[in-house]
Amino acid sequence: MSLSREEIASRYxxxxxxxxxxxxxxxLVHDEVDELIKVLQENPKFELLMASPLLSSxxxxxxxxxxxxxxxxxxxxxxxxxxxxxxxxxxxxxxxxFDKFYDREMNEASGVAISAIALDDEQLAAISKSYANKFxxxxxxxxxxxxxxxxxxxxxxxGDHIIDGxxxxxxxxxxxxxxxxxxxxxxEH
Length: 189
Description:
Layout: H1 5-22, H2 26-42, H3 45-51, H4 57-67, H5 73-84, H6 91-106, E1 108-115, H7 121-134, E2 139-146, E3 153-158, E4 161-166, H8 167-184
Parallel strand pairs: 1-2
Antiparallel strand pairs: 1-3, 3-4
Helix pairs in contact: 1-2, 1-5, 1-6, 2-6, 4-5
């Protein structure tokens, strides 16, 4: 039975997390993971190139050696292991899984604040602080996504939690309440 992509990501992400933690390099490896996630988002074809059967194993090793030259030994070793086991196509998911383990260890979370207009850093920081206090977290790393369809307010997606403070949602709730009220009333003439 083959493993799902999520299972692979979880196993490899946990392995990197434990390896970095055992070697007291957790914070450094976390910084490298975050940087690598950004690089993969900006260059999505890199994963495909490193997973391609058209590129020789030696060429892949040389590319990886150049890429990991400035990285910690732990991260370099891990990336070579991922290459050796043919899991480079899953690297983005593996790195995200590592981030989840790291966030849990540090009592932190990551999420998205969806708003009708772009939020500045101060607004994101205020939302992050408020949410972190409410859920007893030390910190929340939020990114902003703009969606004009929500009309106003903010929808927060953090882990498995969604807090919908959008105007669109509030209007839907009011509409629902009015519809319930109308059904419950008897009309007298």
